[in-house]
Design brief:
This protein has about 500 residues and is an alpha+beta fold. It folds into two domains: about 1-225, 2-Layer Sandwich (Uridine Diphospho-n-acetylenolpyruvylglucosamine Reductase, domain 3); about 230-455, Alpha-Beta Plaits (2-Layer Sandwich). Helices cover about 25% and strands about 25% of the residues. The protein has 15 helices and 21 strands. The protein has helices at about 70-85, 135-140, 160-165, 200-210, 245-250, 295, 300-305, 310-320, 320-325, 330-335, 365-375, 420-440, 455-460, 465-475, 480-485; strands spanning about 5-10, 35, 45, 55, 60-65, 90, 110, 115-120, 125-130, 145-150, 180-185, 195, 215-225, 230-240, 255-260, 270-280, 330, 350-360, 380-390, 405-415, 440-445. Strands 17-14-16-15-19-20-18-21 form an eight-stranded antiparallel β-sheet. A hairpin with a 5-residue loop joins strand 8 (about 115-120) and strand 9. Helix 11 (about 365-375) packs antiparallel against helix 12. The longest helix has 20 residues, at about 420-440.
Amino acid sequence: MALTRRAALVGAGAAVGALGGRWMGASLPSLDGVTVISPVGGETMLNDASQLSETPIFKHVIVKEPPGDALVAALRAELKEAEAAGRPVNLAAARHSMGGQAIPRDGHAITFDYPFVSFEPGAETYTVQAGTRWHQVISALDPFGMSPKVMQSNADFGVASTFSVGAHGWPMPFGPMGSTVRSVKMVLADGSLVTASRSENADLFAAAMGGYGLIGLITELEVEAVPNQLLEPTFQTLPATDFATAFVATASGDVPMAYGRLNIDREGFFDDALLVTYRPVEGEIPPAAGSGFLSKASRAIFRAQPGNEWVKRRRWGIETGVGAMLAGASSRSSLMNEPVITLDDRDPTRTDILHEYFVAPDRFNDFIAAAKAIIPGSYQELLNITLRWVAQDPTAMLSYAPQGQRIASVLLFSQEMTARAEADMARMTQEMIEAVLAIGGSYYLPYRPHATLDQFRRCFARSAEFVALKRQVDPGLRLRNALWDKYMVEA
């Protein structure tokens, strides 16, 4: 078979084993081209992970094509139809953003649904169809002892989506996933197919990386891979004010993966920290697996936290105590192979909302002070904060780390689905952003669009340059979403 020479591992004819029951080679989508799942002109709605972004669209199209001429032709057809009617177009995979960043109002919403990964054994890169999910990449690379160099912390996001939102992960000491992308192919608004990299169409590459699909419809990417490793964790508890120093030392060493946590109960809010580091150990590397027992068992405790400070304290005790004692060695790929659904909220009256802030390590304690002053006084329930390392990103026009290294603070809130809670969340978010900007930090764009226009422009200094390039390559503003409509349309 071709697999012995060229591993077109996930795609037509590829027989790759099951990955935690979520994807199997036997369940490949049929190659039936473009499937329209809503009537042309029929009224329908799309939402995203927030469940607060329900937006009317003209139609939703699911594209099931591998990279190549048929895929490009399908995208060109949608662009041509949308242009004739003056409608916007947007391309997505899972739509895990939280503010309509992947939804074109009254337009053509395109979803990629064809898993395809091509890898030459011994190579340093793989080629992937834009909509391929990360668990499919892991499944494809794992038999060859390879692993994604950087990916998001959950495995059910699309690869091009990760590139397009400038997402990062917890492998160290890298920047956003886009720093590991060699090149992309994309269809521009006029239907032309271009290749963009740091040396070819570099301006388009810089704008598309973290550009939320506003520059072109990405069809495929060439991405860097690294050898898989067997990693063993160590757990260190320390005062939160000492965390940044320890994290800098970790990033300066040979630790391939690390992250941190802070205590979130109100009595000891952000006083204590946990630093988890993974180092290589000798041993046989098992096949990549999905969620482990501890991940699944922790859901009940995790979801019992809203309104219950006792549970929050118990969770911290478990995470720093018995959880640490029970943790064992795992492969690099298995550690990243976690689905979002593991800790999913099943309460129809609440929704999970993410915030993310990036500050220089020497201002991290200022961030802690700001969060202590703002978050406990809000109406929101903080469920978790994870701390990650992000290297400088000088490439992306909408970079959140354009100057120096950053500690990323990823905060997960449980929000009531009420007007009162939404208004309070907007107020609290603006206060947090203002405090972070005051210490030279930045905030992340894929979440609720509560930042003011002034805050957006102060945070993303190259946004005017991004808008100018966007208008040059897409003068009809064919590629649009809620992010463009709120923050950039008048620039």
